[in-house]
Amino acid sequence: MQNIELSTKDLSVFYGEKQAVKHISLDFAAKQVTALIGPSGCGKSTFLRSLNRMNDLIEGSRITGEIWIGDENINDPKTDVVLLRQRIGMVWQRPNPFHKSIYENIAFGPRYHGIRDRKKLDQIVEESLIKAALWEETKDRLNQSALSLSGGQQQSLCIARSIAVSPSIILMDEPSSALDPVSSAKIEELIAELKQEFCIIIVTHNMQQAARVSDRTAFFLMGELVEYDDTNMIFTNPSDQRTDDYISGRFG
Amino acid sequence: MSAKTKDKLATAVIVTLAGIIVLVMAGLLGFILVRGLGHVSFHFLTSAPQTIKEGGGIGPQLFNSLFLLVLTMIITVPLGLGAGIYMSEYAKPGKITDTIRLIVEVLSSFPSIVVGLFGLLVIVNTFGLGFSLFSGALALTVFNLPLMVRITEQGLSGVPAAQKEASLALGISKWKTIKSIMLPISMPVILTGTILAAGRVFGEAAALLFTAGMSSPRLDFTNWNPLSPTSPLNPFRPAETLAVHIWKINSEGLAPDAPQIAAGASAVLILMVLIFNLLARWVGRLMMKKFTAAK
Q1: A85 vs B169: CB contact, 8 Å cut-off?
Q2: ipTM
Q3: Domains identified in chain B, total number
Q4: Which of the listed CATH numbers 1.20.120.640, 3.40.640.10, 3.40.50.140, 3.40.50.300 matches domain A4-247?
Q5: Could you tell me the pTM of the whole model?
Q6: Chain A contact set for B166 (CB, 8 A)
């Protein structure tokens, strides 16, 4: 695989005594979409949240192993997680815009990271909204509350918010599962656009979605990585029987 | 007895009990207001009390109560906010945090006369602050602080985790997240709680008897120099508050119209507390709308 953006080596996540993720080694390529699939409780979301050290927030959680971005192991205790998270964006299952205006939702991150110039901020807001395909709908109402947007628009706004701090990687945790089919399709289109620029790692329960949007797919089961291959291969000719059973709907 | 009859019986009992409480409350409120409001006038609210003559007012006491309230809040709000933020966001669960929480709870249930005596021994005598507004404010801080800490803690823990995570995931520091994302969302809860706590300060008497004192010097309301002993703004002068005045005039008032004055002052006090409560609700609802409503 060329241009590896992020890779994990022997990554395990524990919640107290329970091991939720077991010895995962995975490489994620730049400008590609990687889907993480598997039944509920297989550890795929936990794995995703450990990539930007979000699991640090959970009391009693512990991560072992290595997470490499370039030549830096970000699971090192010395890593500045605040700086790290600027490089890794995240989008959640439920849209969670800040209780602020549309403009402020996007400008909040860049301004904190040192951009004070109003013109520059305006430009970032516009570019981010254009990339998130939300500019046309919101350009005349940037000062309105973000909560006045529809669910799908809110999710696009959350994506715009995360790309505004110019990360290289975007983590998505079932980003369209709380949306209606039309909004969901829009988010999928958006993912296809964004992959020209970002390394996208997406957790999804929706097999069709994984097949449609991703280049590579990893199948998780009970905290272990069962199979990792090109999405085509996984969905047409999986090498492991358990993968075959899962994608053909025999369990999960 | 059938299940249906039992159910009806239970409903009847509960409604009766609730009715009794409402009646007692309404009776009390009505009694105080009816007895007192007749005596309340602009003159009554603004003029100084008389020791032996008729026609004294409660002006200085009303001012003292308000001033003490402001002073107490200036001390309590930053301390309580800080401690509340620490308890909710920084303290790691464990023995020490549990102990702090227990102490805070105990502090808030202290009898106020004990706090008053503590204030007399420590603040007034040992620290040498004397009977003063400042001593009173410190004593009131003792039981206002726990309330403030709990309110802040509740407010912050009510903020959806998704909001906090979204901010942290942008590479925003913890403090900035608390300040710019979490505090604004919890502001309605915190503000409502603060105003309610303020209402309590207004009605407090026992803790002030030995700290803020039971007398007011002659106040010159044209003297705004806070260092002058006759200035109403001087925080180091003794100050009798409205609640203390009611107590004093009832037990040792010499003016022939003392009962009327006490009744009028009580009515004013109750109305003020009522206003605080209504204000708290109104502000809370207003802020809730401002921060969460889709416009």
Answers
A1: yes
A2: 0.89
A3: 1
A4: 3.40.50.300
A5: 0.81
A6: 90, 92, 96-98, 158, 161
